[in-house]
Amino acid sequence: MLKGFKEFLLRGNIIDLSTAVVIGTAFTGLVTAFTDSIIQPLIDRIGAGGDSDYGILRIPIGGNQTIDLNVLLSATINFVLIAAVVYFVIVLPFSRFRKQKEETVEAEVVLLTEIRDLLAQRPGPTVEQRLDPDAPKPTA
């Protein structure tokens, strides 16, 4: 039981996944800090954020309550930045790698097909005939 669990943990997928989660978490913190310290102040400046109850991106709905679009815009920018980095750093290179691997497999299949066809053109008994002497002889 422990042997199977150990094999499960040491498979490449689990290690890759755990590494991706750790790096993704650290990167999310970095992007969030960038958004909070650089992007959010710019959004607040445009939208009269901070302690102000009015502005382009703040909609008063009565009393002290407002709909704050600054927070939504900041979260959207945060999401787009993370998605862009994941796409350009992980998805795009992996897609290229997979495409190269598929092309290599196709080339191997073509080569093996050519070898098979050349062997089939050779005169003499086929593999089946060598393995089974009672098999019918080829007609040339």
Describe the structure.
By secondary structure, the protein is mainly α. It has a domain of 92 residues: Large-conductance mechanosensitive channel, MscL, domain 1 (Non-ribosomal Peptide Synthetase Peptidyl Carrier Protein, Chain A, Orthogonal Bundle). Helices cover 74% and strands 6% of the residues. The chain is built from 4 helices and 2 strands. Strands 1-2 form a two-stranded antiparallel sheet. Helix 2 packs antiparallel against helix 3. The longest helix has 53 residues. The protein is elongated and about 100 Å long. The two termini are 61 Å apart. 4% of the residues are buried. GO terms for molecular function: mechanosensitive monoatomic ion channel activity. It is found in: Cell membrane; Membrane.
Explain briefly what this protein structure is.
Homopentamer. By secondary structure, this protein is mostly helical.
Q: Kindly, what is the distance between the CA atoms of the first and last residues, rounded to a whole number of angstroms? A: 61 Å
Structural classification: mainly alpha
Number of helices: 4
The CATH level-2 architecture of the domain at 2-93 is identified as: Orthogonal Bundle
How much helicity do the residues have?
over 70%
Largest sheet: 2 strands, antiparallel
CATH topology of the domain at 2-93: Non-ribosomal Peptide Synthetase Peptidyl Carrier Protein, Chain A
Based on DSSP secondary structure assignment, what is the total number of beta strands? 2
Radius of gyration, in Å, reads: 32 Å
Order of H and E elements: HHEEHH
The mean pLDDT is 77
CATH class of the domain at 2-93: Mainly Alpha
> Looking at the structure, what is the overall shape?
elongated
What proportion strand?
5-15%
Can you tell me the residue ranges where pLDDT is under 50 for at least 5 consecutive residues?
A: none
